Amino acid sequence: MSIKILCFLGLLLIGAGWAADAQDSLRMYHTLDSIRKLPNDTAKVSALISAGKQYGRYFDNHRSENQFWQDALPLAHKLRSARSLALLYNELGTAKRNKSQYLVAEDYHEKAIKYAEDANDTLMMCLSFNNTGVDCRRQDKLQQAFDYHLRALQLAEKINDTRNICVATNSIGNIQLTAENYEDAVRHFDRALKLETESHNDLGVAINLGNLGYAYQGQHKLDLAIQYYHRSLAVNQKIDNPTGMAICYNALGTAYKEKKDYATAMEFLQKALVVNDKVDDKVHVAESYLNIGKLLSAQNKHDEARKYMQQAIDLSIFWNFKSMLMEAYKALAADYKASGDFRRSLDAADKSLLYKDSILNEKSAMALKQMQAIYEVDRKDNQIKTLEHDKTLGELKTKRNVVFIFALAGFLLMAIIGGFFYIRHRNLEANKQTLQLELKSLRSQMNPHFIFNSLSSIHRYIWSNNQEEASDYLTKFSRLMRLILDNTQHTFVTLNKELESLRLYLDLESLRCNGIFEYNIRIGTDINDEEVLIPPMILQPYVENAIWHGLVHKHDDKGRLDIDIVLKDRSLVCTITDNGIGRQKAMEIKEKKGKGHNSVGMKVTEGRIDLIRKINNKEARVMVTDLEDTAGQPAGTMVTIILPAEFIF
């Protein structure tokens, strides 16, 4: 009766597992369908990458490729988004590494490095170098691993990224530990430990304390090693990490065994055996049995030692732990040899060698399989590029055909309706061309205006400063002029190029004004400054106005200029805020000095914005707001410029 009940309960559990899996599948496909309906842009790629991480365990359990990432890859290639491709290849590589497919993981992470460098994203480069270093370390390619981690460390230190510094430093320490360069290993583990402690990362603290124990044990400083193992154990107990506790107990057992304190060694190895019951990976249980067997063998308790070794063998056979079987039979052979039973020792050694050969064969087969996978991935990438090219050609042909049909229909329609609509259309085109020519004329006026103002500034700077500073100022000015002349040849330039020239201009003005103000430029997180377009020299006149009419006359405290750029409802909103003296007081100062002329730059820029509005039939305007403090006194000016959002893609 009890067997029937157990069978019934087993069936219920299996049914519950199927039901849960079905629910997970429904949720996953619902999420995938929802994301697929989004517009094909970088936001969609980001959503696919995030969802792929969320459902990663689902695809691992089903031993299938992550569908979210498979969708994201061709889209990221189509958009030519280097940062998205770097992030995606990092995720793909890490997933392959977790399945022990180190060759494929290395190939993916090397691709991530390439795209991170293309995107000029230092943080992503750090992550990619560290990931590739780990892949190489898992394949025992220590020199290559060291080189990758060293490059990651150098970049991470430049941007002060603690997480990647910790990873690189700890990894270099492990490489030195493997190469038995214990002093270098201790130095790197000490640094990693300090950083993890400052970051309050208890798991990182526990790992580095344990690593220091291994390094000191390698130097035969057993008391010091035991001290660090105990410290690591205390942290693992604090965070309730059974795997970490088992590792520490085993390490303490081996250290006390080396000290020939067999009783204490047995105490810790038994504790490791108890803790391992809470660890899902049963290889740790087999390891504990084997360590106890080796300890008993060292005490010449051969019969008892073989019982524990046999338990390790039985467990490893059940779970197919071939590496553990190789080590267990090797230990058993040594025990039989020590007791004088050479025939059984030889039999055990033969079995150990058989498992060693099996492991080598599996590694060779896996390497071949991974090389084939890499070939398939590269072939698939090339197919994607070819398909995208063919698709683009097809779209161009379709558009050409559609344009031809519409042109023919329009011609027939105009012929039927008469000359009235033809004349009307011609007039509209003529008006638009006139507006474009007028806009080009206004844009061209910015160059001489800006050059005149800048040359006046250089003249004053040369008279008021020494020759070296004037020469430095003139060098920076020439760089700015080249950038301005290049940008103003185009109707639109990318936002990053416009901001580059604006930052250079602000640096020059700050230098000329002896640093009386500081500035800050902030860009919305949803803006890719390499894709967003902006009319050249559209912000500079307002920035110049804020400096010379608001901040220069401020004497009570340091001036501040904030430039914020965000996307809102398909519009690019640029806000220039200063904490200067305000417009009213600036006007009073201007009247006292007898300067009654209007700013040419402001007037031309207002005309440009007005023409942009007329040409695009979209919102384009400028709003000026006077700021006041809590007492109602002038506290600066805020200029808001709204332009139609334009993109490269």
UniProtKB/TrEMBL annotation:
* GO CC terms in record: membrane
Segments traversing the membrane: 402-423
Which residue windows are coiled coil? Answer: none
Q: Where are the TPR repeats?
A: 166-199, 206-239, 246-279, 286-319
Q: Name one Pfam family in it.
A: TPR_12
Q: Kindly indicate whether the keyword Lyase belongs to this entry.
A: no
For this entry, the protein name equals: Tetratricopeptide repeat protein
